[in-house]
Amino acid sequence: MTLFSNLIGVETCIILKKILSCFLDLGDTMSKSRNIYLKMKTLKEARDILFEQFEPTEILSKEMISVPDAVGRILAEPVAATLSSPDVHLSAMDGIAVKAAFTFGASETKPKELTVGREAFYVNTGHVLPENTDAVIMIEHVNVMDLDRIQIEAPAFPWQHVRKVGEDIVATELLFPQNHVVTPYCVGALLSGGIFTIPVRKRPKVLIIPTGSELLDWQQSEIEALQPGQVIETNSFVLGKLIESWGGIYVRHDILKDDLLKIKKAVENAVDSDFNMVLMIGGSSAGSEDFSKDVISDLGDVLVHGVTIMPGKPIIIGSVKEKPVFGIPGYPVSAIMAFEQFVGPLISLMLGQPEKERPVIHVEPIKKIPSKLGVEEFIRVKLGKVGNRIVAIPLPRGAGSITSITEADGIIRVPNHVEGLNPQESVTAELLRPLSSIENTIVVVGSHDNTLDILADEIKNKPGNLTLSSSHVGSMGGIMAIKKGACHLAGTHLLDTEDDTYNISYLKKYLPEVGVKLFNLVLRDQGLIIPSGNPKRITGIEDLCREDITFINRQIGSGTRILLDYRLKQLQIDPETIVGYQNEEFTHMSVAVAVLSGTVDVGLGIYAAAKALNLDFIPIVTEQYDLVIPEVYFDLKNIQILLDTIHSARFKKRVVALGGYSTEKTGTIIEI
């Protein structure tokens, strides 16, 4: 009997053992039903496992294809010329063909006369050189005496102005080695070398299986009656086009509901056919209806379940009948990151190509970017050149936010041993757009306003292809960004509660040593955004403290938050009595969406946001929304284009159409 059983008694020990056994059985059941990640791998470990498992000995079979159709394809074998180019001596100029030796001795003082048809022959560019000639004298250097006689004042040297046989290509010489990517330029060389069809590697064929009972095809008529919880399936199309961009081809399977047997059958059929790879989208996480792991383990081997990256953590890598089968996460950004780190590189490996690498540059975040230890994070950022540095503005990090990729200029990778990045710390970013585009980006930081979207659209139609990149951190956040030199301009609507003016006192207080200009963008109506029909019969700010009202606030430092707190103080309302006062959003549209969704009853925002979503609106104040522009940037060409756009009648017309705006002062400089 053990010391433990001696101390607590044999019967008690038996009972504890049974309890422990129950917990172990429950844990085992949970791990099976919930697919708990037990052995997550680092990104490097997972990639090593993938590439070691599927390192191809004979990469892909080949097919013959006509040269003009081969652009973008990969040569399966080296290709040698069968013809020389040119295959005869050709004249490179318009003039006369001669035997160089016959011209020796000619000079200005002692010109030499040649007989046409015997010692000299007229030729044009590209003509075959006549027999027994080896040089061409340009027609400009020939004195024509009569039809049969010409005169030259300088000798020719052998092969002067002649394209000799094989000058470009010599028959049997290697044109391109295996694994070479055929470009449009290559087409000319191949055809000139007598090559009309070439062996190329077959493109890896990938089956994409979207799974999920909540998914609908965008082509379906039921889309118009989309029910709560239903989602339009998009990942398969995104991944399919990514596959094509990496050199593969894809087939999209019909959406499969969450049915283990049906999904397993589709994968089994695929690996038994000519598919080189299978992607199951969705069902890779730890949910009770996430079947990807079970499918792979039933048919083959699970090599990796879970990787310490964000987004993309739930990816599954498996092998079924020696073919790679992936469980791709269902969130759009996770799916893209999983593809770019694993699936795309494997396609390159199959094609005998190096992995694609994006160009990288050094950037500086404008604010602290927190990160989790033990996880490698891919932070999507907007980029812009401000002064002599490239600043990075982090975008929303949710794996379901596809716009965080479409709006991103670059990706900052935070290693798993780093706990966040500090403001103005130099880090590297992978570029998603050309550097020239980033250098033509105007960076605006500060308060959100819907007119910025119109402005961003309008300047795209101006010379220079400018981009407006806005980050919504509140009015005070914009002023602080100006102070740090992190943006070209800031949007602000800070109310001075002492004299009811906007922005001026804040600029004097926080930017006393920074020369700036204050430029009015719009006057706008700010008020309470409420559901259509006003079901709670809200009449004003005084109703926010009602127990049956749930409020959504703006972040600390925003002009809207300052306005609210000012009015609450005037009405002697304690913010603690407002349900939801501590809950914050960062844009007027986010506030409006919260009201529309029914998660809250009311929020403070601009009329344009309420109108955009067909919500009701109770006006509170007409406020002044201005742009703060440092003097050092004011005369820059791009800023002047921006200001000219703001002054334009077209811009003002579009702003007024939003509703709740006045352009009476738009474009005026305000004295500070």
Task: Summarize the topology.
Layout (H helix, E strand, L loop, with lengths): L2 H6 L1 H25 L8 H11 L8 E5 L12 E2 L9 E2 L3 E4 L1 H4 L8 E4 L4 E4 L11 E4 L3 E3 L4 E4 L9 E2 L10 E3 L7 H9 L4 E5 L3 E6 L4 E2 L14 E2 L2 H11 L3 E4 L7 H12 L5 E5 L10 H8 L1 E5 L3 E2 L5 E5 L2 E6 L3 H19 L9 E6 L10 E11 L2 E6 L8 H4 L3 E5 L12 E5 L3 H5 L1 E6 L4 H9 L7 E6 L2 H9 L5 E4 L2 E2 L4 E2 L1 H7 L5 E15 L20 E4 L4 H12 L13 E2 L2 H10 L4 E5 H6 L3 E15 H4 L2 H11 L1 H10 L2 E2 L6 E2 L2
Parallel strand pairs: 13-16, 13-17, 14-15, 17-21, 19-23, 22-24, 27-28, 27-29, 33-34, 33-35
Antiparallel strand pairs: 1-12, 2-11, 3-10, 4-6, 4-7, 5-9, 8-9, 18-20, 20-21, 22-26, 23-24, 23-25, 25-26, 29-36, 30-31, 32-35, 32-36, 32-37, 32-38
